[in-house]
TrEMBL record:
Residues 20-202 form the Metallo-beta-lactamase domain. InterPro entries: Metallo-B-lactamas, NDM-1-like, RibonucZ/Hydroxyglut_hydro. This is MBL fold metallo-hydrolase. Keywords: Hydrolase.
Length: 239
């Protein structure tokens, strides 16, 4: 689904496998790239959705990971193997991905599977920027859900979009590297800025308007982060 000019959501709820977090396709000055890439379970459908957007998956140059969890970058090794894509993460989530730590990546904890070790090709730090066709993307360090979590600010003309990953409405568990102190500071940081729209890690394809007020309410509702959606995704629940 097209979100803005040269920006599409190609994975996540209602689009691909229900394990998948939001996957965003963007046209950079030097080629197409992804923000997050979903899980192996959704890999084929993500590729098909990219084709529906008029882009060949072989045109994807690199992946920017919001953090090192299975639902966000679990398929990165497949993108590397098939297309030679490079994976970029924050330094503090690098080790768990490269080691295939299936607890820290949440693969075993939430999805009943195992992470495949995946080499991280480069690191993301606050202020890193990428030029797109009609927009710019800048990394914002947003720890809390994990200590290596980043979000991305997209400036397109007069509009500012926050791609928040799990910095907003993510789940809290020390087993996956969460820190309440860091997360509260992150929410203070996010709500001190202005955004026209935002999207986050587990949402249907859409841009959410009235972003400033909605983000303030997400900060106010921090208690929900301790148990918003943390149940095993590989089992079926009646209620």
């Amino acid at each position: 689904m097209k979100l803005l000019t040269n920006i599409y959501q190609v994975g996540g709820p209602s689009l691909t496998h229900f394990f998948d977090a939001t996957v965003t396709l963007l046209k950079g000055k030097d080629g197409w790239f992804l923000i997050d890439c979903g899980t192996p379970e959704g890999y084929e459908q993500v590729k098909e959705n990219i084709r529906k957007a008029g882009v060949e998956p072989s045109q994807i140059k690199f992946i920017l990971g919001t953090h090192g969890h299975y639902d966000h970058v679990g398929a990165a090794h497949l993108w590397k193997e098939e297309f030679g894509c490079r994976l970029f993460l924050h330094a503090l989530d690098r080790e768990q991905v490269e080691a295939g730590d299936s607890v820290k990546t949440s693969a075993a904890l939430l999805y009943g599977t195992q992470s495949v070790p995946c080499l991280v090709d480069g690191l993301i730090a606050e202020g890193d920027a990428w030029e797109g066709e009609g927009f710019t993307v800048e990394a914002l360090y947003t720890p809390g859900h994990t200590m290596g979590s980043v979000s991305f600010e997209v400036t397109a003309g007069d509009y500012r979009l926050l791609i928040a990953g799990d910095a907003v409405w993510g789940g809290f568990s020390e087993k996956i590297g969460s820190s309440e102190e860091a997360w509260r500071e992150t929410l203070d940081k996010i709500t001190s800025r202005h955004y026209d729209f935002y999207t986050f890690g587990h949402v249907n394809p859409q841009l959410i308007a009235d972003a400033d007020e909605r983000l303030k309410e997400a900060k106010m509702a921090f208690g929900n982060y301790y148990n918003p959606w943390f149940k095993t995704f590989f089992e079926t629940y009646r209620y």
